[in-house]
Design a protein that fits this description.
With about 110 residues, chain A is an all-beta fold. Chain A is about 0% helix and about 55% strand. Classes of the chains: A mainly beta (about 110), B mainly beta (about 120).
């Protein structure tokens, strides 16, 4: 049972444009959501997070939106840069999960010059 | 900048051999996680420690995997005997999290295990 889903395995965007990565979850008890970026052969790097009491959190070029009623979150990257090319994972925690992070399958973003 | 240290970075081992991975979390981080990531999938939790205690090892294959964090600081994950299906990236992460607070987890570089 996949509690966190990223339905797009890959996304390609042009440099300077907006990248939108999507994530859906099924467990309504999740109350904290995170996005990680991962380069090949390296560990995931924390990007940005959002608590369920908010619907938006912004950090520089990265903005995360949370729609609790739809159980959906998205990561917006504006403007996209070639160095953003990586695999992006969304993760969720809270409720009865005891602090562990439940990850989606990842979306591979390719930003073309 | 504080980092989670893992070693080795790469490990090739033969089927049925024993293998061990080491992790040193960020100083002061109470929670330590071991995750396994298979290519094309998201990381999956193997074991979670709060200080020196295991709080979740429900997905750890206990017939062959073991983990310890004896003094509540660094940790070792062991596989004995290794099987071909254990080939994956093994990731260690740590967080300040205590009890119900939500904080981000920081990951190490990982250990890429190949079982031949």
């Amino acid at each position: 049972d996949q509690q966190v889903k990223q339905n797009s395995p890959s996304l390609s965007v042009q440099e300077g444009r907006i990248s939108i990565l999507n994530c859906d979850y099924t467990n309504s008890m999740f109350d904290y959501f995170l996005w990680y970026k991962k380069y090949p052969a390296e560990g995931p790097t924390f990007l940005i997070s959002i608590s369920s009491i908010k619907d938006k959190n912004e950090d520089g070029r990265f903005t995360v939106f949370l729609n609790k009623s739809a159980k959906h979150l998205s990561l917006h990257i504006v403007p996209s840069q070639p160095g953003d090319s990586a695999v992006y994972f969304c993760a969720a925690s809270g409720g009865n999960q005891g602090g562990k992070l439940i990850f989606g399958q990842g979306t591979e973003l390719s930003v073309k010059p | 900048e504080a980092e989670v240290a893992q070693s080795p970075r790469y490990k090739i081992t033969e089927k049925s051999q024993a293998v061990a991975f080491w992790c040193d979390p960020i100083s002061g981080h109470a929670t330590l996680y071991w995750y396994r990531q298979i290519l094309g999938q998201g990381p999956e939790l193997l074991v979670q420690f709060q200080d020196e205690s295991v709080v979740d090892d429900s997905q750890l294959p206990k017939d062959r995997f073991s983990a310890e964090r004896l003094k509540g600081v660094d940790s070792t994950l062991k596989i004995q005997p290794a099987e071909l299906g254990d080939s994956a990236m093994y990731l260690c992460a740590s967080s300040l999290r205590r009890r119900s607070s939500n904080t981000e987890a920081f990951f190490g570089q990982g250990t890429r295990l190949t079982v031949v």
